[in-house]
User: What shape does this take?
Amino acid sequence: MRVVAGALRGRNIKAPDGDATRPTTDRTREAVFNALASMDVIDDAVVLDLYAGSGAMGIEALSRGARRCTFIERDRRALDAVRANVTHLGLGDRSSVLAGDVMVSVVAQRGVDLALVDPPYEFSDWPALLAAIAVALTPDAVVVAESGRDLGAPAGWTVLRSKRYGRTWVSFLQRDDASDEPRTQTPRAREPRATGTVGD
Assistant: This one.
């Protein structure tokens, strides 16, 4: 695998050994991040890469201008790959790698603008996972959810867009604080960001 675009374009990304993880293909990553760029979500964003695997999604965000990324993963071989990739690409000062269960670890996070979520295909408890993630998010944050099926519009969330890539459905979600009824619409406008570097 390689970084698709940005400052690290063309750099190699190590995949975890074994078949416990399912790396997002280069084609899907490119489509996802092109869409996020058009929504003005990436630049200076605080990112979560959940069920990180190789870390390719979070690394792509950093390459394209995200401020920092926290990678959360519990598989040992995947953690080794994420740490190796972060070190190899010189992203240590903008990255945190946490070992643990996503449902437990994510609740300690705050101020997240973009959450990249790719659990195993057999995962089914999306309502509980989205509820846990919601605590960490800023008001206009976007969640990119990869799944083996179309998630539809979860209660309390707006579907910004949804598309199938091979066996994978990718849904762009945003919290709908105005209503508990699911709906589909165009993205809400983001407030302007302050420029400059923010410390840890």
User: Anything to note?
Assistant: The CA atoms of residues 49 and 110 lie 14 Å apart. The beta strands are 46-50, 68-73, 95-99, 112-117, 137-147, 157-165, 168-175, 183-184. The two ends are 29 Å apart (CA to CA).
